[in-house]
């Protein structure tokens, strides 16, 4: 289980009106020695817009209303060699995607006929979303990364920065989030002005 990263993604989708369930109740055995399984969530938005269709490959919170059913795979920080320095280097981020993400795509998403088909209508399109630390910021690495991910069956990606920004924007200091340690922590950070809008700068 991805632990903190999975909880972060779960809170994000729930805050955006989705029903969320863990796709598997067991840990898949990694194919490679030293590899770890990724979190897989099945999300359902009962209020999704009828016109549907994703506006772009990199998804933002405004796109959530377009998604009805989706399988979300979380490429967790602690399960990878991704470092903060990679966010500033398109070439290093691209290398991470090729080795740590694209090389494992076959194992990430469930195959046809697996358990999710029991809870999703057969004629319902299922969006495949990958949550990543980030994408390369400049071309040609960025466009090549997107094409490779699309070819691997990914319909869209969400970055952790999008998730964190949306959570901070929606957490209210007047509300008590006793049922969520994560949201309660975010609320406390906002109360003590450690997170400031609109840039959401930490510890300025």
What would you say about this model in short?
With 204 residues, the chain is of the alpha/beta class. It has helices spanning 4-15, 90-101, 105-108, 141-151, 160-170, 181-191; strands at residues 19-22, 39-44, 69-74, 126-132, 156-159, 195-196, 201-202.
- In round numbers, the mean pLDDT is 80
- Structurally, the number of domains stands at 1
Treating each run of at least 4 consecutive H or I residues as one helix, how many helices? Answer: 6
Helix/strand/pairing category: alpha/beta
Helix content range: 25-40%
Shape: globular
DSSP E strands, number: 7
Main sheet: strand order:
1-2-3-4-5
Q: Kindly report how far apart the N and C termini lie.
A: 33 Å
Give the uncertain stretches in residue-range form: none
**Would you list the SSEs in sequence order as H and E?**
HEEEHHEHEHHEE
The portion of residues forming beta strands comes to: 15-25%
């Amino acid at each position: 289980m991805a632990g903190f990263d999975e909880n972060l993604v779960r809170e994000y989708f729930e805050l955006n009106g989705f029903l969320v369930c863990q796709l598997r109740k067991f840990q898949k055995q990694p194919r490679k020695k030293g590899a770890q399984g990724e979190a897989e969530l099945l999300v359902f938005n009962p209020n999704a817009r009828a016109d549907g269709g994703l506006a772009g490959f990199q998804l933002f919170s405004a796109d959530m209303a377009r998604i009805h059913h989706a399988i979300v795979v979380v490429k967790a920080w602690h399960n990878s060699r991704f470092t903060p320095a990679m966010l500033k280097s398109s070439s290093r981020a691209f290398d991470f995607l090729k080795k740590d993400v694209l090389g494992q795509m076959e194992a990430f998403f469930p195959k046809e006929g697996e358990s999710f088909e029991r809870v999703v209508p057969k004629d319902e399109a299922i969006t495949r979303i990958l949550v990543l630390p980030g994408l390369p910021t400049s071309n040609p690495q960025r466009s090549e990364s997107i094409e490779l991910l699309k070819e691997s069956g990914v319909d869209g990606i969400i970055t952790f920065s999008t998730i964190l920004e949306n959570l901070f924007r929606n957490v209210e200091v007047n509300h008590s989030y006793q049922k969520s340690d994560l949201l309660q922590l975010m609320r406390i950070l906002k109360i003590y002005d450690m997170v400031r809008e609109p840039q959401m700068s930490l510890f300025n």
